[in-house]
Structures are given as C-alpha cells and as structure tokens.
C-alpha cells in the first residue's frame, strides 16, 4: 500500500487495484474472450503502469493506449505484452512505433504503405462501421484491401461501436458490416475485435477474439453489471467559516446560506479535476453525511456545508463512497470517463 498522504496533502485518490482485477475477471468471464484492457489517458486517470502490473496475472493479450508516448511509458516500466496504439498511424511516427515495439492502428492507404515499407512487424487495421471517426470506411472502394495482400504483418482488424450502451440495433448493424468486410478480405486476420465494456458484457455475441474493456475496469457501470468501485477521490477541509443567514459563498455568490451555519472549504477545485459544472449541484460526503456543493467550484477550492463538529483536516469524499462515480458524473452533466481522466497531477494516487 502506498503511504497515507501526510497532513500537507490537499487531495488524493485511493485506488483499489483488487477491484480493477475483479472487474476485469467479470468481463473475461461474461465475454469468454481474451482481454485487451484499455490503458489510454494514464489508465483513465488511475495510473497506467499500476493498472497494467495489477492485470498481468490475468494474462491479457496486451494493452491499448492512445499515443506512442503512452506506449513508451509502459515499455519503460518493463511491460512486455503487445501494446496497440489506437491513434491512427501517421507515416512520421513509424520509427517511434518500431523503437518501442508498438503495434500501430492503420486506417488510411498512406499509413499502410509506410508501415509495409518498414518491414513485416505486426499491425491492426481499423474499420469504420458507423462511428465516422477514424479507419477505413466499411463501404468505401476496396483498393486498400489489395495492399493487405503484400503486408505480412497484418495481425488484426477491429471496429468501434458508437452506441453499445444504449442502442442494440446499431450494434448489430455495425457488427454485420464488420463481418462483411472481414469476409471480403483474402484471409481473415489472426485477431478481430470490436467490443468495449458494454458490448463485452453482453456475452459472446460481439466478443470476437479480443474484448477491449475500459470504463468498467475503473468502476463505471456498463450493461446490467455493477462494477466494484475502484477510485475514492478525497480532499481535506482546509478552512472553516461561520455564516449568518443570507451570506453568499464563492464567486458570484450563487449560493446563500438559508440560515446561520458553518461552511467548510475543501482543498480541491477544477484544476484538480472537480468539474466546474458541479457547482451548486454536486454532492460530497463529509462527516458521514452527504451535502450539496455550496456555490461555484473554484480553481483550487470548493465549499460545502459543515457542522459544529467539522474540523480543519477532516477528510471529504467527492466520489467513491456514499456518492458513486456515475452519480456524481450525472450531476455534472457528464460521464464517469471525464471525472476520472480529469483528475489532475496535484491529486496524489494512493494504491491499495
């Protein structure tokens, strides 16, 4: 266990690595497929290296990242499994992929030619079946398919579902498009994958050879499965104020005390990842009870109602306790992904 933050720590996140492993086991069991866990954005803000090391005993096929820098960080930490970089390969980055033994994702003809010219190292192609973001369009001219015949490193093909958590009809349509493209290739690649957390938790239907769990690993809900909570975001009370009825709090005085009472200032703000949209609507656990954020979230601080017994140094929980990650995200008009990845560098990660 990482040491408890000392009394100078303003905010930190307790990360339960065993919960990540348990959530990964759930995905593997339900999907009956090998895992390709997503570690992009520093493991969704949790810590990519720590997560990878925790997941190693589950024997995942490899790990997914978004950038070559993220891949290099894992290699520097002695992670040796395949690492797939999901930002489409640009020809200028071929050398970076080769240097750190990273597998590129290829979604255009120029990148395919550049990688083919660099040798026979493994790569995956992306098929755009409706996300309209990156990859070879599923119904485009098939000229790129001819180039694959002379690309011995062709290892995998994948697509990305745009509404796996809310529109089963669209998932089925995208899967059918993906299968039609695979059927049109001269030789199916070794690995085909499509399922994110929500699709993987449906079962074998869209599992393919690999599944790519993301948010469910880190404690966000997907399908009908409830994950084990992973992150508990906490902050200390750094100041106290006794207010009279009608006195305002924070910028713009958008919150006014309904009656005389105590206000506690927490050492966490939007520079630490506490979204400004949570002002006046977000909830915080303090002293065993849940209270609503009072006024606007500021860069370094946020205020909440306290009690007579509230003291400087008390610890409040922003999410991961009585207030869940998904509940807090909904209050802020966003999703759990954003709350996790928004946690800034001033938030110490403590691994349990």
Give the H and E element order.
EHEHHEHEHEHEEHEHEHEEEEEEEEEHHE
Percentage beta strand: 15-25%
- The assembly state of the depicted protein chains is single chain
* Rg, Cα atoms, Å: 23 Å
Tell me, rounded to a whole number, the average pLDDT.
96
The separation of the N and C termini measures 5 Å
Alpha plus pi helix count: 11
Decide which structural class fits the backbone: alpha/beta
Shape: elongated
Number of strands: 19
The major beta sheet can be summarized as: 9 strands, parallel
Low-confidence stretches: none
Helix content: 25-40%
Question: Which helices and strands occur, and which strands form pairs?
Answer:
Blueprint: E1 11-15, H1 17-31, E2 34-35, H2 40-44, H3 48-55, E3 63-65, H4 68-76, E4 83-88, H5 94-99, E5 103-106, H6 109-116, E6 123-128, E7 136-137, H7 143-148, E8 154-158, H8 168-184, E9 191-195, H9 197-200, E10 210-211, E11 231-243, E12 248-249, E13 255-256, E14 261-266, E15 283-286, E16 289-292, E17 302-305, E18 315-319, H10 325-331, H11 336-342, E19 348-351
Parallel strand pairs: 1-19, 2-10, 3-4, 4-5, 5-6, 6-7, 6-8, 8-9, 9-10
Antiparallel strand pairs: 1-11, 11-14, 11-18, 12-13, 14-17, 15-16, 15-18
Helix pairs in contact: 1-3, 10-11
Please tell me about this protein's structure.
This protein is an alpha/beta fold and 352 residues long. Helix content is 26%, strand content 24%. The protein is built from eleven helices and 19 strands. Strands 2, 3, 4, 5, 6, 7, 8, 9 and 10 form a nine-stranded parallel sheet that branches. α9 links the parallel β9 and β10. α1 (17-31) crosses α3 (48-55) and α10 (325-331) packs across α11. 43% of the residues are buried. The mean pLDDT is 96.
């Amino acid at each position: 266990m990482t040491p408890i933050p000392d009394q100078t720590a303003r905010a930190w996140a307790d990360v339960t690595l065993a919960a990540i492993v348990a959530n990964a086991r759930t995905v593997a069991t339900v999907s009956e497929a090998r895992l390709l866990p997503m570690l992009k954005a520093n493991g969704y803000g949790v810590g990519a290296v720590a997560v990878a090391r925790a997941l190693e005993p589950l024997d995942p096929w490899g790990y997914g990242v978004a950038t070559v820098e993220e891949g290099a960080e894992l290699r520097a930490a002695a992670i040796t499994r395949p690492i797939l970089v999901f930002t489409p390969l640009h020809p200028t980055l071929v050398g970076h992929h080769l240097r750190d033994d990273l597998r590129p994702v290829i979604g255009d003809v120029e990148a395919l030619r550049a990688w083919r010219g660099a040798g026979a190292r493994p790569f995956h192609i992306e098929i755009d079946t409706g996300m309209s973001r990156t990859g070879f369009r599923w119904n485009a001219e098939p000229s790129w398919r001819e180039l694959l015949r002379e690309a011995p490193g062709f290892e995998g093909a994948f697509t990305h579902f745009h509404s796996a958590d809310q529109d089963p009809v669209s998932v089925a349509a995208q899967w059918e498009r993906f299968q039609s493209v695979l059927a049109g290739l001269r030789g199916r690649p070794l690995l085909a994958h499509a399922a994110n957390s929500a699709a993987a938790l449906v079962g074998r239907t869209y599992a393919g050879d690999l599944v790519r769990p993301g948010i469910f690993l880190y404690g966000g809900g997907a399908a009908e499965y409830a994950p084990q909570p992973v992150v508990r975001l906490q902050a200390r009370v750094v100041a106290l104020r006794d207010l009279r009825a009608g006195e305002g709090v924070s910028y713009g005085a958008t919150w006014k005390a309904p009656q005389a009472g105590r206000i506690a200032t927490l050492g966490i703000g939007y520079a630490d990842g506490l979204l400004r949209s949570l002002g006046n609507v977000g909830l915080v656990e303090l002293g065993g009870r849940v209270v609503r954020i009072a006024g606007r979230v500021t860069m370094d601080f946020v205020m909440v109602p306290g009690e007579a017994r509230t003291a400087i140094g008390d610890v409040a929980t922003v999410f991961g306790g009585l207030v869940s990650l998904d509940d807090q995200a909904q209050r802020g008009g966003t999703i759990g992904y954003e709350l996790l990845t928004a946690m800034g560098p001033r938030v110490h990660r403590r691994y349990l």
